[in-house]
């Protein structure tokens, strides 16, 4: 089932026959950023992928050893460790990393394990003047240097210079804190991120605060869940309420190097294969319904829902940025779903309005479940103090996204609930498969293939 597939050039280059996202950009009335004009048109093969990738204990353990401990991972927002003494614990499989800000303002990351009897030094987040183990009281300063232990006379063999807390690599971008556990010197984060820093220069994740954060356990392998959010193809069947106002069929998919990929799905236009069913007003009404608005603006004759929606979004985006964006920003930057992925699991949205960031990671060492983080971030004007981040809402595997409707909004929570209903059944089907492989689309699922090809480079190193 995994034999090489021979395709004609026309089959490889096949795209939706309607207008493309780039054609839609041609209708913009202001200059389009170069980042949106990039279109990689990448073909990475058509071969099936082995289902063991999502179900095998051996494959999972190999990921931990050769990928998770070698890559840059987002741990938290920088606001969680902004003041001296702030600490935050980031867990990934069996590894636990303690992030803290020293008295001099340096950001440090330590393995969260006491060098005496290995108890975790901290849990959760907080502020402390020193790092003291609750078990026996062994203590380090915020710079990771050993300070003291009760009954020090009983440990003449412990040399202070040998008992510094082991560190991990730490770096920041866009207000996010990243860690890397590689024992060797890893590629610098700004190089690892490829085109992302340049593309996001004007969209400023660093000038944002968290308006909602939901952490949800899902009974499916972390990759199966991640993959649902790097392709829009599933929306046709899974999210039918989006068809009046999202151009799913002609979403643009891009990949760069090993670490970065992107999907752009247009808003304010009906899905091309459903376009004959919906008027411009239908598009507007459906969008307002998703947003929880009881009344819907009228789309004037000669105008489009996309134009009206952009006009509605512009004042809020201008207020948030502290500058008048009229004539400076595209409709696409105000409303489209422009979702990047930094391998392995950091997925930030781009644009000027409220943006989402996803993260997917294993739920402990369970092959068959994962933790999905959903962050909603709003921008605040430059030169002003950011509002306080919203608290985290945690949902167990059996708790629906509807329980987070008060923080996500009912419409968005419903979209996530539709995905949440699929994903445990995906894992069940993977384990039950007689075929033993999965089949991917050449274009709409190219990001999934790109992800697995990068994963293989780590596992085969």
List the helices and strands and how they pair.
Elements: H1 9-12, H2 21-25, H3 34-37, E1 49-50, H4 52-55, H5 57-68, E2 73-77, E3 86-92, E4 95-101, E5 107-111, E6 125-127, E7 131-132, E8 139-140, E9 146-148, E10 169-173, E11 176-180, H6 189-192, H7 196-199, E12 208-218, H8 222-227, H9 235-238, E13 252-256, E14 260-265, H10 280-290, H11 305-321, H12 331-335, E15 337-342, E16 346-350, E17 355-363, E18 366-379, E19 392-395, H13 405-408, H14 410-432, E20 437-438, H15 446-459
Parallel strand pairs: 12-19
Antiparallel strand pairs: 1-20, 2-11, 3-4, 3-6, 4-5, 7-8, 8-9, 10-11, 12-18, 13-14, 14-15, 15-16, 16-17, 17-18
Helix pairs in contact: 10-11
Strand content: 15-25%
Q: What's the CATH class label of the largest domain?
A: Alpha Beta
Q: What would you say the CATH architecture of the largest domain is?
A: Alpha-Beta Complex
Structural class: alpha+beta
The main β sheet shows up as:
8 strands, mixed
Tally of DSSP helical segments: 15
The overall average pLDDT, rounded, is 96
The fourth-level CATH homologous superfamily of the largest domain is Naphthalene 1,2-dioxygenase Alpha Subunit, Chain A, domain 1
Shape: globular
Number of domains: 2
CATH topology of the largest domain: Naphthalene 1,2-dioxygenase Alpha Subunit, Chain A, domain 1
Please compute the radius of gyration using only Cα atoms.
24 Å
What is the first-to-last residue Cα distance?
A: 26 Å
**Which strands sit side by side, in order, in the main sheet?**
13-14-15-16-17-18-12-19
Give the number of DSSP strands.
20
């Amino acid at each position: 089932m995994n034999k090489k597939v021979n395709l004609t050039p026309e089959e490889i280059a096949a795209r939706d026959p309607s207008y493309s996202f780039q054609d839609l950009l041609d209708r913009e009335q202001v200059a389009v950023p170069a980042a949106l004009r990039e279109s990689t048109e990448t073909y990475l093969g058509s071969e099936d992928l082995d289902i063991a990738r999502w179900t095998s204990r051996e494959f999972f353990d190999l990921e931990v050893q050769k990928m998770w401990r070698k890559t840059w991972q987002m741990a938290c927002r920088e606001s969680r460790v902004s003041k001296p003494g702030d600490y935050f614990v980031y867990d990934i499989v069996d590894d636990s990393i303690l992030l803290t800000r020293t008295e001099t303002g340096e950001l440090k990351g330590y393995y969260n394990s006491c060098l005496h009897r290995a108890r975790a030094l901290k849990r959760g987040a907080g502020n402390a003047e020193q790092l003291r183990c609750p078990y026996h009281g062994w203590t380090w300063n915020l710079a990771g240097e050993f300070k003291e232990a009760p009954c020090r006379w009983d440990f003449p063999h412990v040399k202070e210079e040998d008992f510094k807390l082991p560190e991990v690599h730490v770096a920041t971008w866009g207000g996010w804190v990243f860690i890397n556990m590689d024992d060797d010197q890893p590629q610098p984060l700004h190089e690892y991120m490829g085109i992302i820093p340049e593309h996001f220069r004007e969209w400023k994740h660093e000038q944002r605060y968290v308006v909602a954060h939901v952490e949800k356990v899902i009974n499916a392998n972390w990759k199966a869940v991640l993959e649902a959010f790097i392709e829009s193809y599933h929306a046709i069947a899974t999210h039918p309420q989006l068809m009046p106002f999202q151009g799913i069929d002609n979403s643009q998919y891009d990949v760069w190097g090993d670490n970065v990929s992107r999907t752009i799905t247009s808003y304010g236009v009906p899905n091309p294969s459903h376009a004959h069913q919906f008027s411009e007003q239908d598009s507007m009404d459906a969008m307002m319904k998703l947003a929880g608005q009881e009344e819907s603006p009228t789309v004037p004759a000669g105008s489009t829902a996309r134009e009206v929606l952009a006009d509605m979004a512009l004042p809020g985006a201008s207020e948030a940025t502290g500058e008048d964006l009229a004539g400076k920003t595209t409709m696409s930057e105000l409303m489209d779903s422009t979702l990047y992925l930094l391998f392995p699991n950091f997925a930030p949205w781009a644009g000027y309005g409220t943006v989402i960031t996803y993260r997917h990671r294993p739920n402990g060492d369970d092959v068959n479940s994962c933790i999905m983080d959903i962050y909603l971030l709003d921008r605040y004007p430059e030169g002003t103090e950011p509002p306080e981040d919203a608290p985290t809402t945690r949902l167990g595997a059996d708790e629906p996204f509807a329980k987070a409707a008060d923080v996500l909004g009912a419409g968005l929570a419903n979209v996530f609930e539709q995905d949440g209903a699929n994903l445990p059944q995906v894992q069940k089907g993977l384990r039950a498969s007689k075929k033993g492989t999965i089949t991917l689309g050449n274009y709409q699922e190219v990001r999934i293939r790109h992800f697995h090809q990068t994963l293989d480079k780590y596992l085969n190193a």
